[in-house]
């Protein structure tokens, strides 16, 4: 590796929690190999790169940009477009960039409702706000006009904003998968453009639990039962998303007796993670009586969006809750 | 290869052209849909000239896909697929879109209809571009047939096939074949003796070299598919060795335990604990009823074993499972009588002289418990008046909404027998008299002439609570006479309830075993109610007799023969072609989650324990798509209905949808 001229790497965050930045460090001393192979031109969390330096670069000058986070503000949108232009390879890194993830759940609300929660009802962020001050895109002050990024109503995934070359799933991606992706980039052994770097099967494939034919009479929430450690969690009534979730994590959650929550997103060829999962579960509810079925669902799955679209609402076919058009 | 699509829009006379501007649709499609090289409209696409037009275009233009906008694919998909095939284009590259039932017949606005027709054509064109050539599969047909049910329909089917030289396994749940017809005295409208016409067929089946009789047996499991079914039959323990027993009947004669016979005699007579249901039973080998046998209940007796000259009684016999390979299955599982106790106001079970129709069959049967004498429960008094109540549990929203088809004629037959054998007055309480078959109406006219009284009204109540002196000691039948428009109270000695026909209690369960479904009422669903009445949606499984719906003996016999003819046709041909529209699992990416395993209505999915993946058994798959929709990993694909094809079709339907929606979502 060392003989080759160094490539340029950018690592950027948008609407995300920062976990992806930490996950990159979880590759441990291999980060040194990364540093050896690449000049890190931008990594706001760890280095001192400046946006204006990136702006000055030639188009395509950055070899690889690992982009985490969804697109919630005008500034994030600008950065996505900028880094797209400047990068040869743009990787949607982690669940937020791939499918919106937890920040994407705000697509169940509007900007107005988000602001109400934070600036009016919120206690932690804004204990007192008697004037009901809200962030404004432009605020005129005696010294001049101050600008804040515009906060969008709808969070978009990276590929709903710019063209994405590869996807690395996970919340956050596991260190070994990050390393595999980096090696693939370094050795130029990437799959066809538009691919997810990883496996194309589901978590069940990596889960050692024994599975039988599924018939579910009752769904339990995780605090309601202590599941048996040998049998399939779904068969025990826990809403395990492993059946629909792309493998690659080594079934981490089921291994510690906790149901898969679906952070790796859908498999190839699945257009809508939540719809798939719902359709699969609906098929194995063990009842022919509509009232009983309704009861099983309502009692066991009180928060369907949270269960089925925890990570993928922004990437789903509906994308968001319907907006009320003010007329 | 670039797409070369041909679009053909049918006028269907004025059926389609009346409410759709077909010329405009064809013109528009030719200009606006990418890849379309010919686009035509024609008066009748299904005519030989219309088909020829498609064939010529395929040859001359080198079409890679054909879209026909016409009627329902149910009617003409085969026609157009065959036309494509003749011209050398794979038939699965032909797509029909239904402009008649889906557009012109349900709409009168020509502009709107034309617009919708364009969307449907666009969708079909987008879809057909992504369709793949498919080849039908062929499997050999095992010449053996399983017939389930030894009533008259099953017997007829068995004989037709056996006489044609094909092996038949006939499975019957009861100790003897014969079914309900063996219980009847006379058959309507000819009044010939039921047993006299049935028993020759029974013994013919019993002795036929091509028939293997499995009585006192149940169908347990069906696997495989058309041409090659594997079935498991449980032979219930008779406790009599079939090979040793000669059917001499001495065991029955000497058995000290008498039991009320609720099956064959409908509770009207007795049998022994070791019994054969009736004298002409086939086979004549008796069975031991362990619930009542003194040896089985108290560990004493063994009389039957002691008297048996061939040492055939075997108290240690166990149920036995027989596995058979058959090419086709005929379900002829029959019916059961409506439980008249469900209508308490009619008094059955509470008022002694209220009878069910089956009880009355036994009562007037010469071989029955009274040797055919019509007497009341006391066993000696002849009734002076008899009321026959029609539609008991039939044509009644509280029970079964359907007409049981045979009860009117059976009631007329009963009326005739009562009038013939006694001096009683007979009153028939009917809603409508239904006599549509050959010589049925004539029989009704005959009974009118014989003096049977007909009162048009549904019976409200049968009671013994007298209001007038002449009602004392009688059963009073109360009904509104809808012809006179007033309430009638008729005091009688005996009441016969014409219970309706109901599906067997386990019909649904049994149907599921071989992949056939039931109607709301519980009758087996035929493939087409008019044009394919004995086939089912599962290839190789046929239905005959009342299990498909209430019918009389001639109709049951006709269906038995029809089902046999269909099976014989399959055997004669020797191979069946299977539609290639099937699901397949990408084994490499299947995680073995087993969501799909229990869903398949045709049992076409198996789980490989070793590789930990699920697999579709292609020969069994009907391409219904249940597993495709349920697979959470998206690794099951339905041929001819893959995601790409379906999404292209949706995009096509929405060709003029407002793309503004996308912009709005992205907007601030």
CATH domain topology of the largest domain in chain A: Rossmann fold
Number of domains of chain A: 3
In CATH, the architecture of the largest domain in chain A is 3-Layer(aba) Sandwich
Full CATH superfamily name of the largest domain in chain B: FAD/NAD(P)-binding domain
Rounded to the nearest angstrom, the distance between the terminal CA atoms of chain A is 62 Å
What's the average pLDDT of chain A?
91
Outline type of chain B: globular
Assigned CATH superfamily of the largest domain in chain A: NADH:ubiquinone oxidoreductase-like, 20kDa subunit
Q: How are the strands of the biggest sheet of chain B laid out side by side?
A: 10-7-6-18-29
CATH architectural label of the largest domain in chain B:
3-Layer(bba) Sandwich
Task: Give the tally of β-strands of chain A.
Answer: 9
| Computed Rg of chain B | 31 Å
- Please report which band the strand proportion of chain B falls in: under 5%, 5-15%, 15-25%, 25-35%, 35-45% or over 45%: 15-25%
Seen as an oligomer or otherwise, the chain set is heterodimer
Main sheet summary of chain A = 5 strands, parallel
| Alpha plus pi helix count of chain B | 17
Structural class of chain A: alpha/beta
Total helical segments of chain A: 12
| Largest interface in this structure | A-B, 36 and 27 residues
Mean pLDDT level of chain B: 94
